[in-house]
Amino acid sequence: MGDVQIMTQKEGKPWFFLTVDTQAFYNSNVLYASSVSSTFAAWQIITTPEIGFAPKIQDEQYSMFFPRGGFRYQFYTYAQAEPGPPDFNEKGISSNNFQVANPYGSLGWAFSEDLYLEFSVQANIYEGTGRNWSSWDNFLSEYPFAWQATWFKNFAEIQSVSVTARTSYVLADPTNFSRTDNNLTFAWVTNPMRELNTQIYASFRLAKYTGLQPGTSPDTPPSEKQFNNYDRLDIQQTYGASVTWSPIEYLSLRAFVSWTKSDSTQVEETGTFEAFNAGTGLNLIYRF
Hints:
Distance between the termini: 41 Å
Helix content: under 10%
CATH superfamily: Autotransporter beta-domain
């Protein structure tokens, strides 16, 4: 009869995922203000449900490409930790609660064992509600187009280092928030055991604002004026550390701390500030 070949079905790979992430942390400068009179601390909670499409290409010829797309919706909630300016003491920092709708798509390319490249497009639609969920105000929309390159190297079995460079152009409405955004991040990761991950990182950001400046003429009413970002340049540095524990495949818990210093040619808004963050987070993921 000759050789008998047994036909078997290839194991299916999950193409979709559902995640819910939540983090609660202390922010020493919740308004990212430059003046001492406007600097006060608050607790922040960010909750993010997300659904995504991330197929693993089976064809060996194209298996180095990683398409991804999805939609996430973020809820930013505030609770005051110490007294602030009089207007915030009266209405409470929770009046600043807002949400962000974020559809996105990307294509990654594993160029080599040590180098990963990615192109991405997304939209960030900011909607403010404060404590009144029946009142929606789309106060900012951003559309970043980005390239990213990550170089990483494993050594000593449980340790690795990475360098990530990201450059993007952000179209914005109002247009005075349009800008080029550039980031460089260095990270050192250790895995002392399979369930435990630690990370120490340093990140540097350079942003150059390029958009038009609506509402800055002398005849514009004060209520319609925009912050003047003309020729604005931001330089930021952030240093942080995190510990992540993943007891099972679908669940991870983390604790983190970071400090950011920002210098800007525009100090009226959130360009020049210092802020310390510390908190914890939880992530649930289901793949199918």
